């Protein structure tokens, strides 16, 4: 699986597999570019709640543009097929 190659099974640096999947679906569903996707990942409460990173108190998780680009690009057809089999 390309997305976990050389990384721990729970995800990649800065993002876990759930974050990658949610942001990939948002990107494809809205035909969003990476600037818009970064805005969703860091500033839109509902998307952040779905990802499990929205906090009422304390430090909020922030996703860098580079982390988003590096991770979202790794989700390939093989991985999506495996997800669909679950």
Tags for this model:
86 residues, globular
Briefly summarize what is shown.
This protein is mostly helical. It has helices at residues 17-30, 34-43, 45-51, 65-72, 77-85, and strands at residues 11-12, 15-16.
Topology, please?
Elements: E1 11-12, E2 15-16, H1 17-30, H2 34-43, H3 45-51, H4 65-72, H5 77-85
Antiparallel strand pairs: 1-2
- Give the number of domains: 1
Largest sheet properties: 2 strands, antiparallel
- The gyration radius over C-alpha positions equals 13 Å
Strand order of the largest sheet: 1-2
Total helices: the number is: 5
* Average pLDDT score: 85
Structural class: mainly alpha
As a percent range, the share of helical residues equals: 55-70%
Q: What's the N-to-C terminus distance?
A: 15 Å
Run of helices and strands: EEHHHHH
Give the tally of β-strands.
2
Shape: globular
Please report which band the strand proportion falls in: under 5%, 5-15%, 15-25%, 25-35%, 35-45% or over 45%.
under 5%
Which consecutive residue ranges, at least 5 long each, have pLDDT under 50? none
Describe this structure in words.
The protein is mainly alpha-helical and 86 residues long. The protein has one domain. It has five helices and two strands. The chain has a two-stranded antiparallel sheet with strand order 1-2. It is globular. The chain starts with 10 loop residues before the first strand and ends with a helix.
């Amino acid at each position: 699986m390309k997305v976990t190659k050389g990384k721990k099974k729970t995800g990649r640096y800065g993002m876990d597999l759930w974050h990658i999947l949610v942001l990939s679906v948002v990107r494809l569903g809205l035909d969003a570019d990476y600037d818009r996707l970064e805005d969703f990942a860091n500033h839109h409460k509902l998307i952040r709640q779905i990802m499990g990173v929205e906090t009422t108190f304390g430090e909020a998780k922030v996703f860098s543009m580079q982390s988003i680009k590096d991770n979202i690009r790794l989700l390939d057809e093989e991985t999506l097929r495996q997800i669909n089999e679950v």
